[in-house]
Design brief:
Layout (H helix, E strand, L loop, with lengths): L1 H11 L4 H8 L3 H9 L6 H11 L3 H17 L5 H16 L11 H19 L5 H22 L6 H10 L8 H22 L6 H12 L30 H15 L5 H15 L6 H15 L11 H17 L3 H21 L1
Keywords: ATP-binding, Nucleotide-binding
Pfam family, one: HTH_3
InterPro entries: Cro/C1-type_HTH, Fido, Fido-like_dom_sf, Fido_containing, Lambda_DNA-bd_dom_sf
């Protein structure tokens, strides 16, 4: 146990409780509770203890994390089964293998080549006149907001979504939350477009701000903040990381992006960053919408039009199944194909309208 280990180390250093308290600045009563197992230190307190006791942070943290897992699962009858499921998911999210560049099939490479050819044609169609560009943005923004929210269960129709965004109307029989989801998503799209115009890259600040916009006035307490509670995906048996793992997983997330942002094909990179964020599930709500906006930030900043995954039942199921292939079987290929298909469809639609 962490508390027993902490006490053993302190006694081996011939330190009294009050002496360790003076060295760390942690209240003596609190340290006593750590040692009895009545209280767990914060990450910052753990660091202070490791420094003043002359023991590696990794050694203390291993015991600290083990106690957290035990506290969570000790009374669960299916604890061992849950640990086995979680082990494979955490291994996928943290292993060195997931930092390697993926191998692409010939079929997928052909789709990427097709998308690149369409992107070239789209860029040759520029510059569009201001009014034409504005109309294109309005058309695709509304459709994207409608579909992305529909995936998450929003019941506003495409026409109703347009009325809420463009006219500020209130739709009878629809909840305030559904109206706010539409308004917020529309604002988040505008934020992403401003990032593209300003050439601002993906970062922790960007992800948190996108999420803040998604949940603004819907859940201000959790908007732009990592979750502090365990969550489950409705209708899925996928085990999600516990809150105490999120900080490290998000560090790995941005490390992966730094490593591969110029090495992977943009479509593959956008799919990876989408899937990884959904799988980490760092937020109480809004993970899907935030992940899809991150995907499109990557695509748009590299000259593609945004991919708009549909929210009808068949498309939504295909989307969830493709994500589960990565999460359960470490097979990203179906998800790569899904994103590539959506990018191609989007580019073809943009070219047709031009």
């Amino acid at each position: 146990m962490f508390g027993a280990r902490l006490k053993d180390i302190r006694l081996s250093r011939k330190l009294k409780l009050k002496e360790l308290a003076a060295l760390t600045g942690i209240d003596v009563t609190l340290i006593s509770r750590f040692e009895r197992g009545d209280r767990m230190p914060t990450k910052n307190q753990l660091l202070l203890l490791s420094e003043q006791l002359g023991v590696s942070l990794a050694e203390l943290k291993k015991e600290w994390l083990a106690d957290k897992v035990v506290a969570l699962l000790q009374y669960e009858p299916m604890a061992m089964e849950a640990l086995q499921v979680a082990e494979s998911r955490v291994e996928y999210l943290t292993s060195k293998k997931v930092h390697d560049a993926p191998q692409l099939s010939d079929e997928l490479q052909a789709k990427l080549d097709r998308a690149d050819d369409l992107r070239k044609r789209w860029r040759q169609a520029q510059p569009l006149g201001p009014s034409q560009l504005r109309r294109l943005h309005e058309f695709f923004d509304i459709e994207y907001t409608f579909e992305s929210n529909r995936i998450e269960g929003n019941t506003l129709t495409l026409q109703e979504t347009a009325l809420v965004v463009n006219e500020g109307l209130t739709i009878g029989g629809k909840s305030m939350r559904e109206h706010l989801e539409v308004i917020n998503h529309s604002e988040a799209i505008g934020f992403v477009r401003d990032l593209v115009l300003g050439k601002e890259d993906l970062s922790r600040r960007v992800v948190m701000e996108i999420h803040r916009l998604i949940l603004k006035e819907v859940d201000n307490e959790n908007a732009g903040r990592h979750r502090k509670v365990p969550v489950r995906i409705s209708g899925s048996d996928t085990e999600l990381p516990q809150p105490y793992l999120l900080e490290k997983l998000m560090e790995d997330y941005f490390e992966y992006y730094e490593l591969h942002s110029k090495r992977l094909h943009p479509i593959i990179l956008s799919a990876e960053m989408h899937e990884r964020l959904v799988s980490i599930h760092p937020f109480v709500d809004g993970n899907g919408r935030t992940s899809r906006l991150v995907m499109n930030l990557i695509l748009m900043s590299r000259g593609y039009t945004r991919a708009n995954i549909k929210g009808d039942t068949q498309s939504r199921l295909a989307y969830y199944r493709a994500l589960q292939q990565v999460q359960k079987n470490a097979n990203p290929d179906p998800f790569y194909h899904l994103v590539a298909d959506e990018v191609i469809r989007s580019l073809e639609q943009h070219l047709e309208l031009v």
